[in-house]
């Protein structure tokens, strides 16, 4: 059991979560446990170590997150992605088509912008990460921001992050930040309960059989010993059954931040929002600046960069 349980949420999500053509059964789903940042960094660190994640409620100013959401969709509007004449902070998807090529190019511009860098490095988060990592925190240059349309089949398969960051320290922390409210039906991140121990085991098994690989191949998520894309699986119900555990979901709100271990297995589900809201989020990686840094992450994110 988690020591994170101030108030355990025992009910199952009321909305059916789905990904890759499969629906998660109610008995294999549950809720993440929320954490109030006011409990202090030592208690937060213990929760993270025990559970593989910590869902920090309202760590960031909500108004600033909503303002940034508005800014992002304002700059994506010319692609046809957002409903014409709508409030950009709502992020309502256009009922028609959009120029995906233009949207991809614009997204690559946004992740290189001073505004995005400032959002990721805002003082409440930077100060917290210094405390959490017990030193000077290093924010990797390669940072990802994603939008997902309602009704899109797009969902991230199950994986753990160290697969893509093997060239540096394993003492990494991922921060996943919902840019706006992301209730369960919008398909935010789901976590396989207790799976940080599974990730450690999987990575040890990979190292044991990687003696035939070159140094470059050993750190690659796409080497001959890995599944396609570095994924663990696209079949979320099967994984829950196989490991006799649950996928944990949450009704995320603007201002929340989720930290997870590089070994914690996670995925996303499809955006089924009936109000046609676009899901927008960013995931960024931290480590102590004194630990070895994976040099492949010293460049901005680019589509197709194989990381």
UniProtKB/TrEMBL annotation:
Q: Which Pfam families match?
A: PhyH
Q: Extract the GO molecular function terms from the UniProt entry.
A: 2-oxoglutarate-dependent dioxygenase activity
Q: What is this protein called?
A: Dehydrogenase
């Amino acid at each position: 059991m988690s020591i994170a349980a101030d108030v355990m949420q025992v009910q199952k999500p009321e909305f059916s979560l789905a990904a890759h053509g499969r629906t998660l059964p109610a008995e294999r789903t549950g809720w993440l446990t929320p954490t109030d940042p006011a409990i202090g960094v030592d208690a937060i660190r213990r929760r993270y170590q025990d559970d593989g994640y910590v869902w920090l409620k309202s760590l960031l100013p909500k108004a600033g997150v909503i303002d940034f959401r508005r800014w992002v969709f304002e700059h994506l509007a010319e692609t046809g992605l957002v409903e014409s004449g709508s409030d950009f902070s709502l992020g309502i998807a256009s009922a028609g088509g959009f120029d995906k090529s233009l949207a991809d190019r614009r997204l690559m511009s946004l992740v290189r912008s001073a505004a995005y860098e400032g959002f990721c490095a805002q003082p409440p988060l930077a100060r917290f990460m210094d405390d959490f990592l017990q030193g000077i925190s290093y924010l990797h240059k390669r940072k990802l921001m994603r939008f997902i349309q309602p009704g899109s089949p797009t969902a991230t398969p199950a994986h753990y992050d160290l697969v893509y960051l093997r060239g540096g320290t394993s003492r990494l922390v991922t921060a996943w930040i919902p840019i706006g409210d992301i209730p369960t039906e919008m398909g935010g991140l789901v976590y396989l309960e207790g799976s940080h121990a599974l990730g450690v085991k999987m990575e040890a098994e990979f190292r044991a059989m990687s003696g035939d690989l070159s140094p470059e191949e050993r750190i690659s998520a796409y080497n001959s010993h890995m599944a396609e894309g570095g994924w663990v699986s696209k079949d979320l119900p099967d994984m829950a059954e196989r490991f006799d555990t649950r996928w944990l979901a949450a009704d995320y709100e603007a201002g929340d931040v989720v930290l997870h271990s590089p070994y914690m297995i996670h995925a996303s589900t499809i955006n089924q929002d009936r109000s046609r809201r676009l899901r927008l989020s960013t995931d960024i990686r931290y480590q102590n600046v004194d630990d070895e840094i994976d040099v492949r992450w010293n460049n901005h994110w680019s589509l197709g960069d194989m990381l």
